Amino acid sequence: MLSQLAVLAVLFASGDCFRASTDLKDQECQESQTNPEYFSELRSNAFITECSKKDVCLLMRQLDAYFYARALKGELVDYGKPPGGRFLASGNCKRPLNSKKLVPVTTKEECQKILSKHTKKKMKVIHSTKYPAGCIMDFVTKRGRFNKADTNVDAGVKYIRVGKSRISAQRKKTDVRQYCYDDYSLDEAAASYYSPYKLKASMAGRPEMSTSCSFGMMAGLSRVGLTDSPCASILVGEQGTKAKNVLIEQITNHWCPGIWHEAMDKGATCSADRFPSWAKHGFVQDEDEEGIVERAEYLVRGIGGETKEDLMDSRTAKMGLPEGVCENIEDELFDGILSGKGDEAPDFFRDAMVK
User: Fold this and answer.
1) Minimal CA–CA distance to 179: which of 121, 124, 106, 82?
2) Are residues 221 and 334 in the same domain?
């Protein structure tokens, strides 16, 4: 009995006990939980009520989740105006004839605004598998429709037979075009992999250079009301205060890189591949001179584009901080660090030079 306890004590001291129960080194990173209440609940369950190393760890995870949520919505880049839109004369929004990624109009209200600029005729709401999805207009009759059916029908000129008799029937020309917006969103696989808040393998030895250590982005979460983090509240405080300056230095040089190092040492990181098993990736089968390949769906009928296999070979897996890792990080309270500093607010840019 004593020998078994001794073995357990050695395992615990070396960290192997932690690895045995939460060995996440080869575990796949799962889809990010993007709801702010999720992180508030984690803080509550871990009794995090003041700024600490664990609090910063949760901020690092939430930055990754916030990027993922914005990427799915196409909100990573602010162009200062709504996405551009146009009527397609051929192809459709899901599979355009060029390399642009597009998305159809999804509401009848938006369609009404678009059509009002091109025709005075009343818009009709339909549900038909014969027309392109979303906002469409026949440029011959100037009649606009909002099609609620989710179809892959192409826009273009068609000649429709009018009349029941095959002999005397006439053919009527239609030129139905589909309105599409530029789509800046990423699919689930890309939104997860391309997050700058995951750690590249090449940065494993210098995680302090990672975007996940950005105190400015952590403060940003508080400014937009997405976190109740005590540390983030300090970071949005008045510029030049002792608490804020000390916390910036602590996060950048100690806590953030320390969290990555501790997680890696304990085998508690997760692996973020370019194409996670749980994620939608927007690639479809395409045939070329080499046979069947998978390309980005919106490129299949366009310029071709990089195949899924090529992307898998050229994109090295990143590291992430999975669920449960922050709760097991060795904690340190900010108040204890702050009280050990002098009364003067440190100036970390005092010796900086502009050339």
Assistant:
1) 106
2) yes
